[in-house]
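subagent[fold] <- orchestrator: predict structure for attached chain, return tokens only, no commentary.
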Amino acid sequence: MATGTNSDVPTQPGSGAATLAPRADGEGPMAATAVGLTKIYGSGATRVVALDSVDVGFEAQRLTAIMGPSGSGKSTLLHCMAGLDAVTDGDVRIGDTRISDLSDKQLTLLRRQRLGFIFQAFNLVPTLTAEENILLPLHLGGSEPDPEWERRVVDSLQLDERLRHRPSELSGGQQQRVAVARALVTRPDIIFADEPTGNLDSKTGGEVLGFLRRAVDDWNQTVVMVTHDPGAASYADLVIFLRDGRLVGRLADPTPELVFERIQALEG
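subagent[fold] -> orchestrator:
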């Protein structure tokens, strides 16, 4: 875990931890929220409304999946929520921090200190060992790792015998486990995962999804995951569905069959 916090990134006064936004229904905190989120690419004849005034909240200490047909805006939503893509209009917050109010430096620090990322393509640095890749976010932020927490993460992901290997010496599943460890090592407020099993076979993908599920259940992490796979979505507590840039439905306690039926209805 990073030692200390950076004053450039807004946090809860006196706590050293991020404030979580209260839910409107009073049932629990939201780790991230968006109100009126709109994202438009291009103009004139090339204008595309990728997100059309989306209102959504992602509950803390839960795994939420984002699904929808191709071109529905699911990856765009994740990127806007994570501050990877600027919004055209609307209010996006991580906890109580409005990300559009942040300078480029503050936004970089927020992503580095409070968010974790897992991508389909792993995004490991090929010249670094597995352990160096895992600790990279901490080193970039000038923070010292917490050896006990690092060991717990490494052991849970069964990477202890692979720490000195470079990505080219690892299987696809092992590379994605390194990416999961890298996302967890900073103890982020939220992990954003964009098609984390897209390049993996079903067995290896299931292992990665199991790790994410246990991170929520055992370590109180918050995970927001884009997926096209009903089986992957069934690991979530809640699935939200997009179509044509709009939020069109939710499904709690999903099963692969129920998710498949919803997707078929959206694509029909």
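orchestrator: received. Logging for downstream: Residues 61-82+103-267 form a domain with the Rossmann fold fold (CATH 3.40.50.300). The two ends are 46 Å apart (CA to CA).
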